[in-house]
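User: I'll paste a sequence; please echo it back and then give the predicted structure.

Assistant: Echoing your sequence first, then the prediction.
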Amino acid sequence: MTTLFKRIFKSGWKNCSREKGLVAANIFILVLAISTLTSLYLLKDVSNFLVSSIQEKVDISVYFKIDATEEEILKIKEEVAQIPEVKEVKYVSQEEALASFSDRHKDDPVLMQSLDEIGDNPFYASLNIRAFEASQYQAVADFLNNSNFTGLVEKVDYYQRKPVIEKIFSFVSNMNTIGIIFSFLLIIIAVSIAFNTIRLAIYSSREEIKIQRLVGASNWFIRGPFLVQGAICGFFAFLICLILFTLFTWIFGPKTEFLFPGLNLFTFFIANFWIIVFIQLSSGVGLGVVSSLIAVRRHLKI
């Protein structure tokens, strides 16, 4: 049995050495296929990060009347925090609201002068409420509008922000749907191209296969070298992809962090290094072997 495996491996390696052009083409196609799968994995997490970042910037505010005391507002905060859809509730006092506005508009003399002329603090105390998902703000707004503390509420700005929240919810839903469809199509294309490239390599050896059948070689003895060839091509494609993605993420990691604070592709790549190695190695060798197996069985009718 060991001798048989050695012969099969030696024959597969000889095929790689003899058909360098087809092997190079096969490795190139497998590199594209592995790169596609790796990119899908990276883009999935990048898109999740971007969607989460967008959702983090969305909230609704409850503004309270001037005569509402801080103690009453803090009690309401505890009650709102118990809503299942609520992720975070932050209390902003009148003084904090004024300080925040002044800091944002300190370079606008017209606004600052108008604020001075008013004299009193024109801002309301408020609760900034953040839900887990954009689709949950309607439930939060319904709770606020039907609560027993509506007499203390000046206004809830959900309906002013509703169009923006609905657009974000639609964007998130569309991103997930498009991502699934795009991933499925790319995987099909990658597998089809790899399969047809390997089939071409097997077709070039059809005369040799006929001779092996005539002298009584078993099906697996004939298939074996092509499976080894596919695995070798997949392994070299894996090495190339690993080097390319390491260099790519290392070069563009700082640039992505500059555009999207908190997102560094290289940091993410290193944190998920062994998962990416597994994806690339298993997809490279797996595509090479499976495509060879299908091509030999279906197209050469062995």
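The chain has a mean pLDDT of 75. The chain has eleven helices and four strands.
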